[in-house]
Amino acid sequence: MPDFLLAPFTTGPSVDPLQVLVRLVLGLVFGGLVAVVYRSTRPAAAGTRSFSVTLVLLSILIAMVTQVIGDNIARAFSLVGALSIVRFRTVVRDTQDTAYVIFAVVVGMAVGASNPWVAVAGIGVVALAATLMRTKPGPTSTSELYYLLHVRLGLGHDAQSVLGPVFDAHGTERRLVSLATARQGTSIDVTYRVALATDEAASALVKGVNRIDGVQNVELRRVDPENP
Prior knowledge:
- By secondary structure, the chain is an alpha+beta fold.
- It is 53% helix and 18% strand.
- It has helices spanning 3-6, 17-41, 48-69, 73-83, 95-112, 116-132, 159-170, 199-210; strands at residues 145-154, 171-182, 187-196, 215-222.
């Protein structure tokens, strides 16, 4: 390759490509272990598979970022500024899932900083702690049916005050799962986990919500009562 093409990549400290590859492969392996711990200690749900893949990719990416930064403080601040433009709009469904995101980040940093034993020890201790403190599903009532209700409201409508009376009329329990904007900020997507007594109540709930002024779309989906 001509020297003028190699020059921009040889002005900094030399990097062993084999070491870089080994660290990234270790990031993949340890990220996979983080995902295994997550899948083994958290209840199964619709987003579990996607979230597990995210943990693996996050470990690899953080290992890459750590190697790019190295000991260069200026480069670290530059990367913080560059990565600050990234916005995660998906609501993490549980605070423990946030802990697993941090777990994947720390494992990736340890691998990228050439401290694989820190990652190994951390994975072992976190796996043990998560297993010991795993929450077992309590007894559920067979008389209740659980659903996820997705509603799109026009901007300017308060979801709680608008939907509350309908929930009180047809449901026995409700919990807010996620809240996000849609259609470039002109609408609001809100998701509730609701408990209903019968299938007829589900139909009545959808009809009642659909009649509310400002509601643009309604979707009701059955979920496993043991996986909130």
